[in-house]
Amino acid sequence: MNNAINSPVIVALDNMTKDASLALADQLDPALCRLKVGKELYTRCGPEIVKALHQRQFEVFLDLKFHDIPNTTAQAVLAAAELGVWMVNVHASAGLEAMSLAKQRLLDRDFDTLLIAVTVLTSMDNEALMRTGITDGLDAQVSRLAQLTKQAGLDGVVCSAQEAKTLKALCGQDFKLITPGIRLLDDNADDQKRICTPKQALNDGSDYLVIGRSITQAADPSAKLQLILQSL
Ligand SMILES: O=C(O)c1cc(=O)[nH]c(=O)n1[C@@H]1O[C@H](COP(=O)(O)O)[C@@H](O)[C@H]1O
Q1: pLDDT tens digits along 39-53
Q2: Which among 11, 15, 209, 210 is the best mutation to test ligand 1's pocket, defined by most ligand atoms within 8 Å of the CB?
Q3: 3-state secondary structure of 107
Q4: Which of 53, 129, 163, 229 has the lowest CB atom count within 10 Å?
Q5: Ligand 1 mean position to 110 CA, how many Å?
Q6: Could you confirm whether 199 is annotated as catalytic?
Q7: Catalytic residues per the record (predicted)?
Q8: Whose CA is closest to atom 24 on ligand 1?
Q9: Domains detected in the chain
Q10: pLDDT one-digit tens code per residue, 159-212
Q11: C-alpha to C-alpha distance for 21 and 19, rounded to whole angstroms
Q12: What is the ipTM of this complex?
């Protein structure tokens, strides 16, 4: 593993077959980014894809967003840690007990895998959230779930960079903020609602930038990653 990496960029390997993902990984430098394996790629390829990326010296964020009863959530997190991934996530709305138990099971086994929780998906705006029955506002829900995540002892949350300033003030500098919905000014927003540029995200307190289509669908993904890193 490449523990010396200090790039904030995590490239999301979505919309790709196993071969295409590995071909892209071979174009990227593990010193310049980490890689995210999400539901699509993991469902297609299973643990083998994580192994193949580890063999290429990449640190992997396994983004399976576990959301289940406490025992099931905690055991799934443990199984992810056993794969040797750098970071894994759950949904904060699984609740305090599920998050606390997951963290405890990692500690009991001496795993230092980062465990983070998704607050409100960056594809949602206030109106979409209201339709799920949360009526006191998106910012309130993000803050509430971040505080619950911190109380459970997790390492940080996934949120929009638009909430980064507020959450750093609320949860402290050490509480990691992982922010998807990152777009350069001339990128397409696609299905993301709460977007931010890489530079603004870092300025406002994001620790890690999750970037998918902006890099993976570029004509030259490696050059686009370089461009993003230079913009920081
Ligand atoms: O947990 C995540 O990574 C995640 C949480 C969230 O709120 N929003 C979000 O977009 N993501 C993931 O981040 C990636 C963003 O991809 P792009 O929109 O293509 O940059 C996707 O793989 C999403 O699954």
Answers
A1: 999 999 999 999 999
A2: 210
A3: helix
A4: 229
A5: 28
A6: no
A7: 65 (proton donor)
A8: 38
A9: 9-231 (3.20.20.70)
A10: 999 999 999 999 999 999 999 999 999 999 999 999 999 999 999 999 999 999
A11: 5
A12: 0.99
Could you tell me the CA-to-CA distances from 130 to 20, 60, 138 in Å, in that order? 38, 33, 8
pTM, entire model: 0.97
Binding-site annotation, residues for substrate? 14, 36, 63-72, 122, 183, 192, 212-213
- As given in the structure block, the two tokens for residue 168 are 């750093």
Q: Which of 122, 145, 178, 197 to mutate to test the pocket of ligand 1 (most atoms within 8 A of CB)?
A: 122
Ligand 1 residue neighbourhood (C-beta within 6 Å): 12, 14, 38, 63, 65, 89, 118, 121-122, 158, 180-181, 190, 192, 210-214
Catalytic residue, candidates 51, 65, 176, 199: 65
- Only one residue has tokens 């840690």, namely 81
Question: Does 6 score more than 90 pLDDT?
Answer: no
Say if residue 2's pLDDT is above 90: no
Coil/strand/helix, residue 16:
coil
> Which residue matches tokens 């399976």?
64
Dihedral class, residue 19 (left if φ above 0, else alpha if ψ from -120 to 50, else beta) = alpha
Amino acid at 86: W
